[in-house]
Amino acid sequence: MNQVLAVIILGSFWACGDLSSQNLEESEGKQIYKTYCVACHGANGKLKLNEASDLTLSEMTLEERIKNISEGGSMMPAFAEVITEEEIAAVAVYLDELKESN
Ligand code: HEC
Question: Model-level pTM greater than 0.85?
């Protein structure tokens, strides 16, 4: 399911949408999360540092998350200026995986 969403969001990946590139995309989301998000949200999404939300309790849809990550919040930085749209989509997809692993 996550892989299907990733392919829909990342239209550019249709061109090379074989299984290996989709797996690569998933782990990219995790890497981005580890690089940019753990500082406030923690490795398991529950850290809530700097008043961050518990991501495992988030009810946002994938679309809402992409918008939220791009534009930021009162305390959360706007990542549209930091990482690419593809990277934002990848990390937004990864949050589903994170929820399932908790
Ligand atoms: C500087 C701390 C900080 C960093 C870094 C950060 N966040 Fe946040 N995040 C927050 C805070 C604080 C909130 C609560 C909303 C607000 O006030 O900004 C939040 C809320 C969210 C929400 C909304 C959850 C909900 O349902 O309300 C999502 C999704 C989210 N962050 C994802 C991410 C992702 C993905 C990254 C990495 C690309 C990230 N955050 C990096 C602080 C951070």
Answer: no
